[in-house]
Design brief:
Strand order of the largest sheet: 1-2
Radius of gyration: 13 Å
Structural class: alpha+beta
Bound molecules: zinc ion
Strand content: 25-35%
Helix content: 25-40%
Shape: elongated
Order of helices and strands: EEHEEHH
Length: 69
Amino acid sequence: MAAKKRYQMKIACPQCGCTQTSVMTAEEMQERYGDVPNIDLECGECMLKYTEEMKDACPDWDKDCKLQE
Ligand SMILES: [Zn+2]
């Protein structure tokens, strides 16, 4: 059985600059974000709410989720 592909999300807060990374499977990505161009995030450090483009946060998912139609 092949290992499932993992997607790495990498986001940086525009205000304080702290970065967060998380690794998720395709199922988790689909459940949490789905096929969306933009995602809403909240910084764990300064609590700023901001929006990030999926193609910047996780280019792999942005590409793959469009292929899954
Ligand atoms: Zn922040």
